[in-house]
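Summary for the steering committee. One of the milestones for this cycle was to obtain a three-dimensional model of the protein with nicotinamide-adenine-dinucleotide bound, which we needed before selecting residues for the alanine scan. The sequence and ligand used are listed below.
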Amino acid sequence: MKIGFLKSEDPRCPLSETSAKKFKKLDVALLIENGLGAELDLDLEQLDGVVDKSRDEILADADMVYSTDPLSEADLSKLKKDSILVSFYAPFNAVNQVDTLTGKAIQVFSMDMIPRTTLAQSMDVLSSMASIAGYKSVLLAAERLPRYFPMMMTAAGTVKPATVMILGAGVAGLQAIATARRLGAKVEVFDVRQAVKEEVEGLGGKFIEVEGATDDKDAGGYAVEQTEEFKQRQKDKIAERVANADVVITTAQLRGRPAPTLVTKAMVENMKHGSVIIDLAASTGGNCELTDGETTVMHQGVQIIGDSHLANSALIDASALLSNNIYNYTQQFFKEGQVNVDLENEIIAKSRIYTYEKS
Ligand code: NAD
């Protein structure tokens, strides 16, 4: 069995020394595209069981190919017949590349489709990256805010703590709460999922309640679209709290749909001069009306930073977690030393997005 790791535009490295050593125990040969890991100064090709190959050699030879970016049509056509491709196709998004797979004699698995179950937690790349992004968003905000985060009692007078408001308490939001609290800020939090209230409070955040949210337990841990009436009530409440905040970190996403607009232009205009908004939902349209993709916008003294790739600012840990997630996921394909695409296995079945139907 040969597993190939391709280079991507994505700067994260999908294989680490630690994961390579674990793969060796599965008795697989690892083929890496020439120079993979060089940017992180990883000497992967020196490891036992790892072989440096060209991209085309890997496509032609590997039984299982891993590529963080979806493959081009040209690369897809070079894959070995009946091989397994693992990537991130986000098939729930309107803009995806799933169509390019049609007619290819391969099976494709998309790691963003791994179910959000306890068993699958160790393979959940979205969570790993969200956690880093939540942490880094607070550090970035602290660095950009022309104020202290903690309360400071100095000889020259007392400085009040900053107020950080976090919209969306999923994986990124919870990490942002913990980080902002560690830096001494006051933290206020909104989420449509009432279930997170206890977690928020446990981390020292104040959960702002808005009555009447729709919470669908069958949505696999994801938030669902809210009623117009709820949205208006939530908007009023957010407007009141945003005006008081020094930092707003937004993380609210809806799977397969544009992110909800939670912070309007008028709300931004009511914020204090120097305030900072970090919009982690930028790649799906943003939670702030003024977010302009992955750029920084200045509006009436408020900085709005759109960034959905903040995890890459901790590239070493992002790569280490990604490679662990990939190893844990790949293990699902092995049974008694043999490759086994077991569709009874929920993790495999739910993450399989394409299979060639032989006619
Ligand atoms: P996400 O990125 O989909 O969204 C971030 C947060 O924004 C969520 O908490 C969501 O409820 C909230 N949100 C959405 N719309 C909103 C709105 N209009 N107003 C305010 N908040 C809004 O979420 P996520 O970080 O991927 O996590 C979602 C859930 O899934 C969490 O409960 C998390 O613990 C769970 N989860 C489970 C696993 C696992 O068990 N393997 C892995 C990851 C996440």
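Key point for the committee: Residues 145 and 190 are 21 Å apart (CA to CA).
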